[in-house]
């Protein structure tokens, strides 16, 4: 699980490569301590805003495939993992399926979600809570544990060939 940044960047590249997804913008990367199963490395978190013509269920399939490509194993709930991609919001839709709830059911309680989301969309309102994202952030007890993470410089990376052998990617030097 030591290649946190590499997995995050690889996931973004795979999302950008998908023909039905356009990356609109991305937040800074934030480092946070794990919740639940705490015997693991701290997490890197970020939020991206995308545009897609996929349905939410299709987007979930894409994100789960990307998680698998990055070595994700679903062994321990909240346990160590290479990557965890969540669909937080999908237009203005509310959905409740067995494996997909939109908005994400716990997103409003988690500073590691709210802080990067607020960076991208500072005027966002949670209409069902009748609060702005700033009001929600102020009420979060774990917000002090969300630290902006400094991305490594390109000099700290060396190009490797992707599994598709179609383009180069960068991974940290060992």
TrEMBL record:
This is 2-amino-4-hydroxy-6-hydroxymethyldihydropteridine diphosphokinase. Residues 77-88 form the 7,8-dihydro-6-hydroxymethylpterin-pyrophosphokinase domain. InterPro entries: Hppk, Hppk_sf. It comes from the Bacteria. It catalyses: 6-hydroxymethyl-7,8-dihydropterin + ATP = (7,8-dihydropterin-6-yl)methyl diphosphate + AMP + H(+). Its EC number is 2.7.6.3. NCBIfam families: folK. The lineage of its organism: Bacteria, Bacillati, Bacillota, Bacilli, Bacillales. GO terms for molecular function: 2-amino-4-hydroxy-6-hydroxymethyldihydropteridine diphosphokinase activity; ATP binding; kinase activity. PANTHER family: 2-AMINO-4-HYDROXY-6-HYDROXYMETHYLDIHYDROPTERIDINE PYROPHOSPHOKINASE (PTHR43071:SF1). Pathway: Cofactor biosynthesis; tetrahydrofolate biosynthesis; 2-amino-4-hydroxy-6-hydroxymethyl-7,8-dihydropteridine diphosphate from 7,8-dihydroneopterin triphosphate: step 4/4. It comes from Halalkalibacter akibai (strain ATCC 43226 / DSM 21942 / CIP 109018 / JCM 9157 / 1139) (Bacillus akibai). The keyword Kinase applies. One of its GO terms (biological process) is folic acid biosynthetic process. Keywords: ATP-binding, Folate biosynthesis, Kinase, Nucleotide-binding, Transferase.
């Amino acid at each position: 699980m030591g290649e946190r940044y590499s997995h995050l960047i690889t996931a973004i590249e795979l999302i950008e490569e998908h023909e039905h997804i356009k990356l609109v913008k991305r937040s800074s990367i934030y480092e946070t301590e794990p919740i639940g199963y705490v015997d693991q490395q701290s997490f890197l978190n970020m939020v991206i805003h995308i545009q897609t013509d996929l349905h939410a269920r299709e987007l979930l399939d894409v994100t789960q495939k990307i998680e698998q490509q990055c070595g994700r194993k679903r062994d321990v709930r909240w346990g160590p993992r290479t990557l965890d991609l969540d669909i937080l919001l999908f237009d203005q839709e509310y959905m409740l399926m067995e494996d997909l709830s939109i908005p994400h059911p716990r997103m409003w309680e988690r500073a590691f979600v709210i802080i990067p989301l607020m960076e991208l969309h500072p005027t966002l309102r949670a209409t069902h809570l009748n609060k702005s994202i700033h009001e929600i952030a102020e009420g979060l007890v774990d917000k002090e544990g969300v630290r902006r993470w400094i991305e490594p410089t390109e000099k700290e990376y060396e190009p490797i060939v992707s599994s598709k052998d179609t383009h180069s990617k960068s991974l940290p030097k060992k």
